Amino acid sequence: MSPKALLGGKRGLPAHVTVYLFVIVPFLALVAAVPIAWGWGLSWVDVGLAAGWYVFTCLGATVGFHRYFTHGAFKAGRPMRVALAVAGSMAVQGPILHWVADHRRHHAFSDQEGDPHSPWLFGTSAAALARGFWHAHLGWILDRDLTNQERFAPDLLADRDIRLVHRTFGLWTAVTLLAPAVMGGLITWSWWGAVTAFFWASLVRVTLLHHVTWSVNSVCHMVGERPFAARDRSANFWPLAILSMGESWHNLHHADPTCARHGVRPWEVDISARVIWLFEKLGWVRDVRWPSRPRLARIRRAATPA
């Protein structure tokens, strides 16, 4: 199939400008965070709200957008399905149909021509890898081309609930940015509490989550350990395991994409998998694709560092 068949048009100019704003503005907030935190402008309320909203929205992306909607690692009823779609939308990583189509395309062409964010598309020289890292981490997001949803996400396109969540992405973005400020203002009963909560629990939290997620695309395809046989350069990068909620155990994920647990060895902390386990115990999800010893044995190979 020709490369054009992978694409489904271009992002409209207003939406593209919005993408730039949501990349640049939160990043500037992160840059400003260190001097602002040095002696003033940061309270325990801000820390608590930022941590809580980070965990909630990160899990929305990892458990919801990624392991459930993209890969079908478990099944869920309609209320949980809608809740996961909304929670993932509040990570501000793009509407659900775009996110899922992009990621399924990534797996279909991982580290080959057609992959939307491989760091290996430009060669292996130092300059090529620097260019590839930028492309995989952030550059691809600034491209106006959109992945063909009819090819890569026809099941979600056919779901009325998911189409509604996709169309209301702006609403969920407003909620994820304004709710922490409202909470900070009410907890401290002050306008200043609302302002600092907006800075830390909205802007800084969003950009930190952005860069952790983007690092799985870039860093985890360049450096790390590869104990499982995958057809690409996906690797485990343990320093990101906690912040990514287990997504940086990336090698197993590419070796067995539908597996609900990515960190399968005893020391590999996978918070997303534990949340799915809890949901299963509560009866909120079912038919979870947990790893099996025979399957792991088939895809295991001698560990090879990058």
From TrEMBL:
It comes from the Bacteria. It is found in: Membrane. Its EC number is 1.14.19.-. InterPro entries: Acyl-CoA_DS (IPR015876), FA_desaturase_dom (IPR005804). It is a multi-pass membrane protein. The chain crosses the membrane at residues 12-38, 50-70, 82-100, 120-143, 164-183. It holds the Pfam family FA_desaturase. Keywords: Fatty acid metabolism, Iron, Lipid metabolism, Membrane, Oxidoreductase, Transmembrane, Transmembrane helix. Its main location: membrane. Residues 47-262 form the Fatty acid desaturase domain. The keyword Cell membrane does not apply. Belongs to the fatty acid desaturase type 2 family. This is Acyl-CoA desaturase. It comes from Phytohabitans maris. The lineage of its organism: Bacteria, Bacillati, Actinomycetota, Actinomycetes, Micromonosporales.
